[in-house]
Amino acid sequence: MTAREIVETALGLLRTGYVFPDLAERAAAAIEVRLADGEYDGMDEAALADLLTSQLNDICADKHLRVRTMPSQAARPEPGEPAGQRPAPRERRRPPHNYGIYRVERLEGNVGYLDLRGVADPEDAGPVIDAAMELVSGTYALIIDLRHNHGGSPEGAEAEVEADRLEDGERRARRVDVGSG
To answer: Which pTM was predicted?
Structure first.
């Protein structure tokens, strides 16, 4: 791929997959200006990935957002595996410890508490997330503790926010407080 193709592909993924669409659009627009000015012309993949990561971090202030290159041998089967029979990366990965759900409980006063240490993809962790949310359903309030959260899947973050519904399916109120600890 050329540098232009890599940048355009990365910006497409940013626009469709980043959890903050407005910020994604602002970052993509800024990088498109640099692309049009020829800033990325002739760069090798590793240098381009590093520069894009730095520029995205300057705009988005998100250390989880990065551009990486894949080594060419990543597509080769592991020793002993026949070509074409290698499972997809998701199937090879071991699920994170309880899909990031560290603790779920009902506190005094019928307040739900969810200590979420990571955000798993709902395709993998859906039943576990559902079970955790079932344990705190019907509570008067829900505390989602993200102090030790290391991030994860944007799709998982969307699913967990949408899980913020009462037993009857009605959403009455939502308050999110983000603090420094």
So the answer is: 0.45
At 2 the pLDDT is: 87
Annotate 23-53 with DSSP letters as a single string: HHHHHHHHHHHHHHTTTTTT--HHHHHHHHH
Domain boundaries, the chain: 3-71, 97-162
Report the C-alpha gap between 35 and 33 in whole angstroms: 5
* CATH fold of the domain at 97-162: Transcription Regulator spoIIAA (3.30.750)
Of 20, 23, 27, the residue nearest 7 (C-alpha):
27
In degrees and rounded to multiples of 5, residue 8 shows phi and psi of -65, -40
Quick check: 148 and 115 in contact, CB under 8 A?
yes
Write the pLDDT tens digit of every residue in 29-48. 999 999 999 999 999 888 99
Q: How far apart are CA 92 and CA 132, in angstroms?
A: 25
